[in-house]
Amino acid sequence: MEAAEPSERGGAAGCKRIYWIGGSKGGVGKSMVAMATIDVLRKRGEDVFLLDSDGSNPDCWKAYREHVPTELTDLDRGDGWIHLINVCEAQKERTVVINTAARNNGAVTQFGSTLDGALEELGRQLVALWVINRQRDSVELLKEFMEAMPRAEVHVVRNGYFGDERQFELYGSSKVRAEVESRGGKSVTFPGLADRVADDLYTKRLAIAVAAQSLPVGNRAELGRWRGEVQRVLGEVLG
């Protein structure tokens, strides 16, 4: 297992965060945002634990299972949420990143209060990075998430693969955006990555740091550009 890079920034008062990478239906880019989050956190020197609930297509787990401690869990069932909380307790010295599956949205309404109610005892802060495309369900499901987990710090990540900020007009003019930002959340645009490089990450199951060392030089150059943009954008919401 790789050692993390030297720390550039520690956690707030020793409190390790839980990062919830959520969104609407499949295809909005949650796995890529989860991988990028792990990459940025590790570059800061944070010790990361990955919990991936996308058992049918665990791209993030496959890419990082040899580089960070990780588990698969089922968040469609109440037992999975109990396990999630127990993992956060057992991994108290690590920052936890949860990559969720599209189908977990219904379970959030049913079981989200289980995690929300345990945060104080865990001594953890839950930070949600809600990944959206330009469709309505991205916004509607975010509202449901915020109702189910009122203690969460919520930031919205517009996936730039689907267009620039101006093209996310539905979210930009929504009451949900106003509520997110009134609670101190931010709305940021995640940079797009060239398809051929993104395809390499997915098809070869590569961690981003590994891809930065092993891809052809042109692909590495594009990945380096993208990593710099990602670090700047996610730096606004990762604390």
Structure described in brief:
With about 240 residues, the chain is an alpha/beta fold. It has 10 helices and 7 strands.
Mean pLDDT: 89
Strand order of the largest sheet: 3-2-4-1-5-6-7
Q: Which class of secondary structure composition applies to the elements?
A: alpha/beta
The CATH class designation is Alpha Beta
* Measured distance between first and last alpha carbons: 26 Å
Rg over alpha carbons:
17 Å
Please tell me the total number of domains.
Answer: 1
Say what the CATH topology is: Rossmann fold
Helix-residue proportion: 40-55%
Please characterize this protein's 3D structure:
This protein is an alpha/beta fold and 239 residues long. It has a single domain, classed as Rossmann fold, CATH 3.40.50. Helix content is 46%, strand content 16%. It has helices at residues 30-43, 59-64, 78-90, 104-122, 136-148, 169-172, 175-182, 195-203, 208-214, 217-234, and strands spanning 17-23, 48-52, 70-72, 95-99, 125-132, 153-159, 187-190. The protein has a seven-stranded parallel β-sheet with strand order 3-2-4-1-5-6-7, sandwiched between helices. Helix 3 (78-90) packs parallel to helix 4, helix 4 (104-122) runs parallel beside helix 5 and helix 9 (208-214) packs antiparallel against helix 10 (217-234). The protein is globular, with a radius of gyration of 17 Å. The protein starts with 16 loop residues before the first strand and ends in a 5-residue tail after the last helix. The relative contact order is 0.16. Mean pLDDT is 89; it is low at 1-12.
